[in-house]
Design goal:
Chain lengths: 321, 342, 342, 321
């Protein structure tokens, strides 16, 4: 039996609903239909009354989640595509994210954002919004890259007493498979050495992890051992694990699918430069998508985001520095 | 701690219209005295940030708070000092929040009208207008999940905030879920300086109710008797499971948008019209006319109110400032996940 | 380039009801044939991304496009292939955008229904529902600034999108500014899988009009004659300066939300009811019944439509893919201010 | 005669309205009332019909601006406080910012955001949102720090064919004065050496520039010559000027009033580390506000944001590295 990233997300929600009566799911078409991506398939039947269709009202969906959380519930909000969270942005960053700090009342909501690019999806169904949410205080931002993490981190997201922005990558939904669901998990906020190496630290997260791993594989034939770090969570960001890896390799390349200005790669590079300057044998480097909206045509899309090819080129350049 | 601020006699179940009026009037008076105190402290330069008052809106606001019970949800807005007091918010909460006392419910982190005790049903507004309505919806849905019935969630909003997308999404949401939401629209004819004509084009804001499929009533917001009746009925209907209720009150803000604003833009015809009446005076006249109170009683109540407010202010003014070194600077409940980044 | 796509006979000023019907029917037919072609290409795996069709909504959509003139503004939505063609969008624009041809108006950067030529009055929708209405308002305000009168801006939206805050803010804005906005609400009873009962609680979406202070009409969206009349009147009233007009049409989407969706959730009673009629068939029956066209004419028109579509598809399929190396990757019109960051 | 930062903003708008019939202003209370901060005082009288009160509808305000821009107008949108731009966020980042790239039609709108903290303003009237907007492709983000720049950059913002997010700092509105309006200006996108020095490059923007200059002044007595760079514009970001300064000083400290995760300081440090690694004699450092909402009480507020004191401490630490 094998299980996909998407099925892991469904399974995690089923388990959360089963284990905790405070959990409910609210989102457009999540009920009988099972969601645009089928991440809630059959859950409305298995958990009657607890998987609720929402009107096309992202602001009200997220506001409702906060109100329910105040009363002790643990809502999971499915935004149909991450891109549409812009219309619920205010409730996330100003209502949910400030609640605990202002009132001492925790806000345990999970916002599922089907994120990232897939071929042919265009400017409004492809966005990677982790940097926006990570910039605001009061939010936890998860970016699982594996089937196992999709499952265990979603369960943790629901269990955490703070608002969690759960960036699940649509490209991984069907592509990525594992043998079974995990029985144990790393703690939240800990990055993972996805592959050990000694020549260069390649930091990635979400779908880019798999491009990074492919590059590491490829460069073996060139005699290069790349260490790949999977951030798992971009806020909190596990600087220690990254730094320890850079201490071993002396070289840092950080890759992200989001836009180049600011964001995860800037944060990682800035931290390593500020706190681990002496560990570096070469300038820390970053690679992001291009600074335009995400293009529709597959040929443009493939050139817009980093790929194993462009990452490998950047890694080779860095190894020569 | 809520529901204990007023003297026990005034908070007991009201037995008559007379009692209801007196109770409401005393709350209105307390709110007015508190507002006046804040205004005078503001003029003396003793306030951090802005001061936003509910002058002229006390009858409506108090009626909301009084119609609610312990266990209900209330999300007051800018001009709801009276409703807050009626719902049971301690005067101290208001004063401490305005002064930024670390002992207040917002612990100096947030201020003035941005205060509440969410766990006691009193939500703490964020500034973004319209954003609290769906939060009330969520609290009500939670109650439904828990099988709690007979509960109501009330929130107040201005004419200007009806133009926000958040308002629209949330009212529609409440209607779709058939939640016991009571939405009080205080049409004070201005949003900051912007008059109704530049804010909406419907004949009455009440015309919006049918478009959401919710019940709607209008009321003269300067008339306490009318407010107690109409708001009370709306709350009862919601409590009885008859779905969201919208109440549109007509009144005037008898102060600036904030105390920095002289409100010179307010049309003088409006000021002179019945809508410009001071609800506190109107309520007082009713008390006299009905022989429910005499001048001595009123002066005694005012004295009580002044004393309560002065005591609270004096107490808070002696409280320490917040200490940035004692502040934990952590926005997360899960402290171990905080970055502690500076 | 717009307003030249159909054969000259069909675009001339219509002289009679018969001509209007024939013209509209031929546009509906062309839209249907184009949609069918896209659906079949999708099934063959020849499409990038999704395919979203307007099947069942052609009568309404075509009526909007036909009521507009050169110089008007039109912001079509997902299911408006017919309205686009009627407004003058070339079939090639649709095909090129769906295929992501670099020669199309969106130059492979955006796709499927996200196309337009803003400078020719045809706005290119973004996906976020409700967001185009205020853009139309802005275009109309610009015309007012320039002293241009007699202009109309039309936009279409679904039942689901009425729940967005953007819808609310924009309709209110149009009303406050008294803009010549014609807002067509296509109530096809579902938003993706979500039925009306989970989307709103008013009896009819038309009940929203009074809450904005705008005129409202309803129409049977399966009936071309009714659509031509009601939409035409709404556009005339807006053009005459009588402010925003809302039209609520009742109909059914005769396809999935996108071609990936089998729409099995659609209630079979609705499918069987009059609202589930195919507007194209209804229009065809009218043509026969009125003796405005015979089977031979219709088959000739269909042949013409098929040929137009096949030609366009064949042409576009021979067009090159976009070349990432020729793409300038610059999101700014001020090229010199671009960061060129990768 | 002296002119404040706020008066310069009003003067720039008056001049834009006078010079270009395509300009109009739209925002809450901007008409007869002259705006919450009086930045449009008397403009409705001087330019009848062109300074228009908006309903409390940020989404529709910004959508309207885009539509008007398509038709060749040059709208200036005043958001009452930057913090409220969250409810118009979608129209900025997805409608305005993508228009040119998608349709080849420029989108010359200016969005004025009264930004940043002032004492007693609290979590929702104090935010610095430049990083959010800079992350999205298709926007220009200006952060003027001086009276002269407030004037000339606002005029440029209106003249530019792209959407400009104009972050004007409320703290500077009345505090900051100049002798006269400038007659010439540096090009958009160019940073400025606000003070020459040789020991350390202190990069700042907006209100933080003045804290930085105070620090530079203060450290003279310690024999330290700090070079202060005023970014002026955070997107595009003038990496060349920063890099040239670091080449002279070997040390970089970047200061911002926004939250610590991501943002301007991360971007500056990451760029210098990646492209100017060998210029650095010490790890590049950054200083931001704390990672919580902006507090209400002045005593907390003063500790939340960087001040001359905390910047001086960071500078001294860096000088010893
Ligand atoms: C979304 C949003 N935009 C702008 C503001 C700034 N603002 C604060 S109060 C106010 C006017 C509110 O008017 P109204 O809703 O009528 O309430 P009133 O002040 O009259 O009680 C405005 C525009 C805000 N708080 N939220
Ligand atoms: C703000 C926003 N939220 C969610 C979506 C995802 N979405 C795309 S189409 C759709 C359903 C639209 O329903 P309706 O408005 O009734 O139009 P129809 O598809 O029926 O023509 C949804 C939810 C979106 N495009 N925009
Ligand atoms: Mg008002
Ligand atoms: Mg629909």
């Amino acid at each position: 039996m094998s299980i996909t990233y998407l099925e892991a997300i469904r399974a995690a929600q089923a388990r959360a609903l089963a284990d905790d009566p405070r959990v409910f799911i609210y989102g457009q078409d999540v009920g009988a239909f099972g969601g645009a991506f089928k991440a809630t398939k059959n859950l409305a039947i298995e958990f009657p009354g607890r998987v609720i269709d929402a009107p096309i009202s992202e602001d009200a969906m997220l506001g409702l989640a906060v109100g329910a959380a105040i009363e002790g519930m643990r809502p999971i909000i499915e935004i149909q595509f991450a891109d549409f969270s812009t219309t619920g942005f205010n409730q996330i960053v100003n209502q949910a994210a400030t609640l605990y700090w202002r009132t001492n009342v925790p806000c345990p909501i999970t916002v599922r954002l089907p994120s990232g690019g897939t071929s042919g999806s265009g400017p409004f169904h492809s966005q990677s919004m982790e940097a926006l949410y990570a910039h605001y205080p009061g939010l936890i931002v998860m970016t699982p890259a594996t089937v196992e993490d999709a499952y265990s981190m979603l369960l943790e997201a629901v269990a955490i007493d703070d608002p969690v922005i759960f960036c699940e990558h649509k490209y991984l939904y069907y592509h990525l498979k594992a043998e079974a669901l995990p029985t144990e998990a790393m703690p939240v906020g800990k990055a993972r050495i996805a592959r050990a190496g000694r020549d260069l630290t390649l930091v990635a997260y979400s779908a880019m992890l798999h491009e990074a791993l492919a590059v590491a594989e490829e460069l073996v034939s060139e005699g290069t051992e790349i260490e790949v770090v999977d951030l798992r969570c971009v806020k909190p960001l596990d600087t220690d694990t990254v730094m320890a890896s850079v201490a071993r390799t002396g070289r840092l390349l950080c890759v992200g699918e989001a836009w180049p200005w600011g964001g995860v790669t800037a944060e990682v590079v800035a931290r390593v430069a500020a706190e681990g300057f002496d560990l570096l044998d070469a300038p820390p480097q970053r690679l992001n998508a291009k600074d335009t909206p995400v293009p529709y045509h597959p040929a443009l899309w493939a050139a817009h985001r980093p790929t194993a090819r462009s990452i490998a080129a950047a890694a080779r350049r860095l190894l020569r520095l | 701690m809520l529901h204990t601020v007023l003297n026990p006699g005034a908070v007991g179940e009201v037995s008559s219209i007379c009692d209801a009026h007196i109770k409401a009037y005393r709350i209105m008076l307390l709110a007015r005295v508190l507002d006046d105190k804040f205004a005078s402290l503001y003029r003396m330069g003793k306030m951090h940030g802005g001061v936003f008052l509910g002058r002229g809106q006390e009858a409506l606001s108090a009626s909301v708070g009084l119609a609610l019970r312990k266990g209900d949800i209330f999300a007051p807005l800018i001009r709801d000092t009276a409703g807050r007091l009626a719902f049971g918010e301690p005067v101290l909460d208001a004063v401490r929040t305005q002064f930024g006392s670390p002992l207040g419910p917002m612990r100096a982190r947030d201020g003035n009208v941005h205060r509440g005790r969410p766990k006691e049903g009193l939500l703490a507004m964020i500034s973004h207008l319209g954003a609290m309505i769906s939060v009330v919806n969520g609290a009500l849905l939670a109650r439904r999940f828990k099988g709690v019935t007979g509960v109501v969630g009330a929130t107040c909003i201005g004419d200007g905030a009806t133009s926000t997308g958040a308002f629209h999404e949330a009212v529609n949401q409440a209607a779709v879920e058939n939640l016991p939401l009571v939405l009080i629209i205080a049409n004070n004819h201005y949003a900051y300086s912007t008059p109704n004509e530049r804010q909406f084009a419907c004949r009455s804001l009440l015309d919006k109710a049918v478009g959401y499929g919710v019940a709607g009533q209008q009321v003269d917001g300067t008339d306490l008797s009318a407010c107690l009746g109409v708001v009370g009925d709306a709350v009862s209907r919601a409590r009885a499971g008859r779905g969201p209720q919208m109440v549109v009150a007509s009144l005037l803000r008898l102060c600036g948008h904030g105390e920095h604003d002289d409100a010179s833009y307010v049309n003088s015809d409006l000021r002179a019209a019945p809508v410009g009446r001071d609800c506190l005076k109107v309520a007082e006249e009713t008390l006299f006319r009905q022989n429910w109170a005499n001048a001595a009683a009123i002066s005694r109540w005012r004295h009580d109110a002044v004393q309560k407010v002065e005591e609270a202010v004096a107490k808070v003014q002696r409280e320490p400032n917040p200490d940035p070194y004692k502040e934990d600077w952590c926005a997360l409940a899960s402290k171990h996940l905080s970055e502690g980044n500076e």
